Every structure is written in C-alpha cells, then in structure tokens.
User: What shape does this take?
Amino acid sequence: MNWFTKAAMGINRFMYGRYGGDMLSFAIIILYCVLVFIANIAKLPVLSLLALALLIWGIYRVFSKNILRRTRENDWFLRHWNRISSWFRRIAHKFSSLQKQKTLAAKDKAIYKYYKCPKCRNRLRVPRGKGRISIKCPVCGTEFIKKT
Ligand SMILES: [Zn+2]
Assistant: This one.
C-alpha cells in the first residue's frame, strides 16, 4: 500500500458518517471568493469578515454529521437556485450596461463639446476641434462665439 492509498483511506475513515460536499457548499465557496474579491477592491473589512463566516459555514456543512438537515438545506438551495441565479444574472447585466453607458459617454465627450445658450440656457452640442465658431441656438436663435 503506498502513501496515497493510505491517505485516501484515512480521509475516507474521517469522512465516514459526515455529510461531504454538495451544490450548496460549492455555491458558498464561490460566494466566498466573490465577497473576498469585492471586499479587497472596495476596502470593506466588514465584508471580508462576512466572507470568512460564510467559509466557516461551508466547511462546517462538509464535515457535519447531521446529514438529514444538510440534505434539506441543499434541497432548499436547489429549489431556489433558479431565482438566485437569475438575480445574479440581472446584477451582472446591470453592471455591464452601466459600463457600456460609461464608454459611450466618454466617446461622446471626446467628439463633442457642450455649451449652454447664454440666453435660454438650452444645451448645445458642437463637434470638437473646429476652432472658434459661431454657434446658433436652435431654440431662441441667439448666436454666440465659442472655441471648440
Ligand atoms: Zn437659446
């Protein structure tokens, strides 16, 4: 018997009567990683503490001997998984459309310059890099000169 088989047998003996991994534990670990990532970026120590609590819960579930209860938790999780995943998808979608809006706004700013009409305060968009031009407000007809 080599050391690997011995170690595997030892783990087997230790895990005997214990619950082991399931989808909920897997999800907890993923959520832990996401929270740690966010906590590091946003510099939120409270969030990393919450992540640690999640990790401990996940590990506790794997080694728990209350198999019935753990199975029920996992069943509950699987029943609600669709709703949970669509919630995550919605957030991801919101985030990506926000990023798109930001890049569009940046592009717009690179191409156009915005001025307010001195008379009626109407917002006017003019192309950049045209030098000094006369701008005519389409609302009130006021003309004014600006550098673009
Ligand atoms: Zn005007």
